[in-house]
From TrEMBL:
Its cofactor is Cu cation. Binds 4 Cu cations per monomer. Keywords: Apoplast, Copper, Glycoprotein, Lignin degradation, Metal-binding, Oxidoreductase, Repeat, Secreted. GO terms for cellular component: apoplast. This is Laccase. Coiled coil: none annotated.
């Protein structure tokens, strides 16, 4: 800019020529500045056991950088992250950046034995990825066994510099990470369930930013507090990092305005309570318009499985008005009125209000590949029902499946590495596009259909295909809401309903104008949900239930999206430090 000022100061017959050069220089400077505005963020994540005390007891807990929850990553759209994971724990581990599209880059996605072999104890792996056209709240977590019970954190993606939010800018922002806590080693909880075949023991507490809150023993001194000034509007970035539980969340006496879900902006609407499934995020605006005081924010279970044990406790944090000269408020915080644990009507009413802000004209209308997936639990019959290995219902073992195929993760190589290397015998691509046996999915299902087959079967998709998947809950064992997550993709939620999906009638009611754009969506209990997306991200991408006990039992498959034409439609080469099995 200084050079341009000097040029303008010199009278010359060629001033018009210099003016054009100046305009060109401004254009070039602005073009380069648009790239220089993007930053590269370098982090080291040291994964190791540290003493963590909750509920009066200290446990050796797997943490990142000694923190529970782990570090919050704050970036902007267009930024690049380079995160060196150093495994000093006793377990194999991998890290997943939940909701990040990872375009052409499955090597940074993280699920063990899908896109990489796990990082072994004493080893390292560097995740490198760029945020491309995404804004909002996402999160990161371990994707190995049950390590994500304590290895997780927020990933906040702000707009590019100079780009505003599509809603009034909040005065301040707070990540609200909902989690579960076991008063024992979560890996032992998993191991016991796998041995006995029964459901895993329920958690002992829910947490907000790692703290259980005032309603649990030995917890009130560490209860999280969030301070606000009277009259200001704040943004709560709510993340459900719980292992196995959907949750209701509310703030006493305050309304919440939903403005984003799964890092996609929504049409604003106001509610007194939100429901967030495991893996999902929801951003809400809150205006501090009540009498100055202390108000609980609280979360408790939304439980849809019938006759299943669950953690029926309530976690709390405190929204505290800054109170000028007064040192404290005279009364205890006010608790919000949360719905009953089985209030499906409230959950469905909330979900039906979520509409996409920028979906118009983007939803695929001509479908190239239509898939119908039944999702649900199952039971494995035992030859000796009295065995200690058969402690499920009536001497069976729990399992789970999609289209009656219970997914088996490989162990000698990752799916992506086997695919790249042309290794045979690791997986097949014959996953059925619909159940091989049709039945009344939400009715009285024959016991002969309760036991699935096991296999490592993938769904093959052509690059650029317009895909529709209908996810159908079943009544096998119990109807239940399954929060289904697809790695590497966002999708439009075009329809949902109760009972069995009717392909002849239900598509007529699909919302193709403003459906929400998500990465995780729940199947209504005893119902179905329909999603659409364009298969524009080559690689192998896990599709699974985000209730970890269900994933452990096999409620998963993977999408193999073939390369398109040329480099920009093909998977990147794997990094040199990719872990080996």
């Amino acid at each position: 800019m200084e050079i341009l000022r000097n040029q303008r100061a010199k009278p010359s017959s060629s001033s018009s020529r210099f003016g054009l050069l100046g305009l060109l220089a401004v254009f070039i400077f602005g073009f380069l500045a648009s790239f220089s505005a993007a930053e590269v963020h370098y982090h080291e994540f040291v994964i190791e056991a540290k003493p963590v005390k909750r509920l009066c007891r200290t446990h050796s807990t797997i943490t990142v950088n000694g923190q529970f929850p782990g570090p919050t990553l704050e970036v902007r759209n267009g930024d690049t992250l380079v995160i060196k994971a150093i495994n000093r724990a006793q377990y194999n581990i991998s890290l997943h950046w939940h909701g990040v599209r990872q375009l052409r880059n499955p090597w940074a996605d993280g699920p063990e034995y899908v896109t990489q072999c796990p990082i072994q104890p004493g080893a390292t792996y560097t995740y490198r990825y760029t945020i491309q056209n995404q804004e909002g709240t996402l999160w990161w977590h371990a994707h190995s066994r049950w390590l994500r019970a304590t290895v997780y954190g927020a990933l906040i993606i702000r707009p590019k510099m100079g780009s505003p939010y599509p809603f009034p800018t909040p005065k301040r922002e707070f990540p609200i990470i909902l989690g579960e806590w076991w008063d024992r080693n979560p890996q032992d909880v998993r191991k016991l369930a796998l041995y006995t075949g029964a459901a895993p023991n329920s958690s002992d507490a829910y947490t907000i930013n790692g703290q259980p809150g005032d309603l649990y023993r030995c917890s009130n001194k560490e209860t999280m507090k969030f301070q606000v000034n009277s009259g200001e509007t704040i943004l709560l970035r709510v993340i459900n990092a719980a292992m196995n539980q959907e949750l209701f969340f509310a703030v006493a006496n305050h309304k919440l305005t939903v403005v984003e879900a799964d890092a996609s902006y929504t049409k604003p609407f106001t509610t007194s309570v939100i429901m967030v499934g495991p893996g999902q995020t929801t951003n809400v605006l809150l205006t501090a318009d009540q009498t100055p005081g202390r108000y609980y924010m609280a979360a408790r279970a939304y439980q849809t499985a019938q006759n299943a044990a669950f953690d029926n406790t309530t976690t709390t944090a405190i929204l505290e008005y800054k109170n000028g000269k007064q040192k404290s408020f005279p009364s205890a915080p006010v608790l919000p009125q949360l719905p009953a644990f089985n209030d499906t009507n409230t959950a469905r009413a909330f979900i039906s209000q979520v509409k996409g802000l920028k979906s118009k004209g983007k939803v695929p209308t001509k479908i190239d590949k239509s898939l119908f997936f039944t999702v649900g639990l199952g039971l494995i019959n035992c030859t000796n029902p009295n065995s200690p290995r058969c402690q499920g219902p009536n001497g069976t073992r729990f399992t789970a499946s999609i289209n009656n195929i219970s997914f088996v993760f490989p162990r000698r190589n990752s799916l992506m590495q086997a695919y790249l290397q042309g290794q045979q015998g690791v997986f097949t691509t014959d996953f059925p596009s619909s159940p091989l046996v049709k039945f009344d999915y939400t009715g009285n299902v024959s016991r002969g259909l309760w036991q699935p087959v096991h296999g490592t079967k993938l769904v093959k998709l052509k690059y650029g295909a317009n895909v529709q998947i209908v996810l159908q809950d079943t009544s096998i064992v119990t109807t239940e809401e399954h929060p289904m997550h697809i790695h590497g993709y966002n999708f439009y939620v075009v329809g949902m309903g109760t009972g069995n999906f009717n392909p002849a009638k239900d598509p007529a009611n699909f919302n193709l104008i403003d459906p929400p754009h998500r990465n995780t969506i729940g199947t209504p209990p005893g119902g179905w949900v329909a999603i659409r997306f364009v298969a524009d991200n080559p690689g192998i991408w896990l599709l699974h239930c985000h209730i970890d006990s269900h994933l452990t039992w096999g409620l998963a498959t993977a999408l193999l999206v073939e390369n398109g034409v040329g480099t920009l439609q093909s998977v990147q080469s794997p990094p040199l430090d990719l872990p080996r099995c």
